[in-house]
Amino acid sequence: MQRTQIHIRTVLAEMELPDGQGQPRAFSLGYYKTDGTKGSKPAVRKGGQAGGSTPGGTEGRSAFRYKVKETGTVQLVDCATGRPFALKIILLCHFNGRDILHG
């Protein structure tokens, strides 16, 4: 059976979508490590608050504020441990079981 594919722009957009309670949505990721081996995380969420600013304030992404285009990384949180980490966008290879297209 052929695996389905998803474009990186769609992946980045889906990472931004909040769940029903307005919290960042959980998803699975596969990626390449800098040494060339594959890694995976079964449940991660985007770092910071999904959807932008908080009510009554302008600061919405707490300590995880970043600019994807400038840094080339995405800030994430491992749902199992609660630890934040960053991944280079170019190293992402799977999103919720689908192959990521980078081009």
What this model shows, in words?
The protein is built from 2 helices and 7 strands. With 103 residues, the protein is mainly β. The chain has one domain. A 7-stranded mixed beta sheet has the order 1-7-6-2-3-4-5. Strand 4 (73-78) and strand 5 (84-88) form a beta hairpin. The longest helix is centred in the first third of the chain and has 9 residues, at 8-16. Residues 49-65 have low confidence and may be disordered.
Write the SSE topology.
Elements: E1 5-7, H1 8-16, E2 26-32, E3 38-46, H2 68-71, E4 73-78, E5 84-88, E6 92-95, E7 98-101
Number of helices: 2
**Helix content, binned percent:** 10-25%
Distance between the termini: 23 Å
Overall pLDDT confidence: 83
What is the strand content?
35-45%
Radius of gyration: 14 Å
Uncertain runs are 49-65
Domain module count: 1
* Spatial arrangement of strands, main beta sheet: 1-7-6-2-3-4-5
Structural class: mainly beta
- Topology pattern, helix = H, strand = E: EHEEHEEEE
> Tell me, what's the shape?
globular
The largest sheet is: 7 strands, mixed
Count all strands and give the number: 7
